[in-house]
Amino acid sequence: MRKSVFSLWCILIFVNCIRSQEKKHIVKIFPAGFINKIKVSYENPIHEDITWGGLFSLYYGGPNNEYKGYKIEPAIRFYTGKTPGLGFYLQMKIGGGYFSQDQTIYIQDKIFNAEGKQIGHHEHVRQRKQDFASIGGGMAIGVQFAVNNKKSLLVDFELGIQYYSKEDEYRREYVYQEADGIVHRVSESDDSPYPAMFEPGWYFTGPGAIFNPSIAFGYRF
Questions:
Q1: Which of 5, 8, 57 is nearest to 33 (CA)?
Q2: Are 122 and 111 a contacting pair, CB within 8 Å?
Q3: How much is the pTM?
Q4: Angle, vertex CA 111, rays to CA 110 and CA 117, nearest 5
Q5: Which residue intervals of 84-194 are DSSP H helices?
Q6: pLDDT tens readout for residues 13-60
Q7: Is 198 helix (H, G, I), strand (E, B) or coil?
Q8: Of 130, 83, 113, 129, residue with least CA distance to 177
Q9: How far apart are CA 62 and CA 174, in angstroms?
Q10: How far apart are the C-alpha atoms of 175 and 189, rounded to whole Å?
Q11: Radius of gyration of the CA atoms of the chain, in A
């Protein structure tokens, strides 16, 4: 329910911005991210030194990143220049998304007889698809400038930090007993050697990358 309300709110922001004919519009694409995602943004000046809008990222995975899903990030920028949407800026954003990840689950089954003596040990694997929501936000500094006289073609350099939550690593333990008294103590765990808060595929190269530099090319109309 919260995910649906959040997505609707973001869509209304975009629609309201696009319907405004009195302000300049800026759309941008981030080509450096094509290895694992498509990322676009929209920006709309509401004052000579303030813009608002948002970013949309569609993750399709990559050679070293298994996360697939999307992320929506409403954002506001405060510029130092007098031309709306141009100059040095401070950006703040919040966001949320929904992702999936294919996991290999390792299963250990320790078998005990009715007297409590271990009589067997089996290991096997199974595949699991993990779906989870993520929320977070971040800040960035950067500079956006025009490269033509009409100030319609833009380049945006940005250095940012962010934090987005991630589902905890998968761990499960349980016990069951057969009719003849044989007891199974089973433990299951995912294939990641890292705890969730240090998962490099998420926090360094994936949707939750803490350090978030970027370059974007845009059009102003």
A1: 57
A2: yes
A3: 0.77
A4: 110
A5: none
A6: 555 555 544 458 999 999 988 888 999 999 999 988 999 999 999 999
A7: helix
A8: 113
A9: 35
A10: 15
A11: 24
